Structure of MFS transporter:
Amino acid sequence: MAQLIYALDLNIVFVALPEIGSDLGFPGQTQQLVVSAYVVFAGGFLLLGGRAADLLGRRRMFVLALALYAVSSLAGGLAPNAETIIIARAVQGVGGALLLPATLSLINTLFEEGPGRNRALAVWGGAGASGLTIGALLGGVLTENFGWPAVFFVNVPLAGLVAAAALVVIPRDAARGERRRFDLPGALTVTGGSTSLVFALVEGPELGWGNPMVVGALVLAVALLTVFAVVEARSSDPLMPFRLFRNRSLAVGVSVTFVYMATFGVLPYFLTVLMQTVHGYSALQTGLAFLIPSVAIATGTQAGERLATRIGNRATLLIGFVVGVAGTVGLAFGFDADAGYGLLVPGLVVSGVGQGIVWTAMWITSATGTPAHEQGVANGIASTTLNIGNAIGLAVFTVIADLGTEGRTGQSLRAATADGEFLVVLLTAAGMLVGLLVTVCLRNRPAVPAPVPHEVAADEAQVACR
């Protein structure tokens, strides 16, 4: 359920943006801040969230994150002005940054390496795929029938119920043994640097890459992340121990998450533009159109678990990328101003299955070989790379997609938009080939069947992985 809430919140606000802008007086371009505030703070605080899960307790951070979600969602729904709703979305982003690594580290410590963990991650991945579709559908239904505040209020009971269930179902955090430092200098520099970097990448396409705010954010990001690297190299108990990257599974897994979100991860954005801007779909019609790829992705996540258990992570990732490349090339031919939805369906299905296989396998890979007491920071590293990959992918590909659209209007603009996106989708398929090359570096170690620890029953992890 926690992953469902996290994924749902990524999409549910999109369809409500026009109403939010009209009601609260947002100019058209600044409506994007409602989305950007969430993305920037979620991306900037992920590594800190992973460290907090390791040091302060995974269940504790899980419940705190859900509480932040509930409170900020209530504030967002009651927001009387633009400033309040942007702040509420920023706090939601912090909640997401605490929730994602806490959820993953709970799964990776409640389940030992092997079939049990693989199945849990497949359920978690399937919940994420469902959340993206439900977010688009639910956002359209709630906005049309109850107004934009409903897309915020829906989170309040959901987050509250999951937090309450977690206190009952998930085992208490173990007492801390050896006392470890939080590494405040490292936490401040990496959070500030990551937040500045994501801000620049998200706002660059909107404001222009020469905008003083964007340039300043990039300079600040480079400076802070450089200081962070120096601090971590000298610290006796660093926030992000560089020795973790000696684990080839983590190094390859993190690299794959970057490639995944820079390629597979940008496709929903361009599909939404195609459906709404080129073909004129309503928000509800767009949500319904995403049902097919979401089912395909969810199917792929389950296939990824079975493959990883039987043939190992390396072979599974290779299969996923091959299927993804083939499907994405086919999908590109549906990006035509005169093409109907039916031409997209074969590519959506094949690409979606490949996407789901890679999604499950890359998280299994990232968690393999990392000690339990460092699962939080390892998942924080992978989650941070995921967000940065998505931000960089969107920043680069939106510029490419818009190259031929300047000065065009009407049908000419729609045709140019579709043509630009056709090229972008082919380039994402080429990017997936990079994922293939990275995966070759992984040792193929089939998962060793391992029983779930006797003190952890299967239902104790359902709250975290659904």
User: Anything to note?
Assistant: The chain has two domains: 2-172+235-450, 186-234. Confidence is low (pLDDT under 50) at residues 447-462.
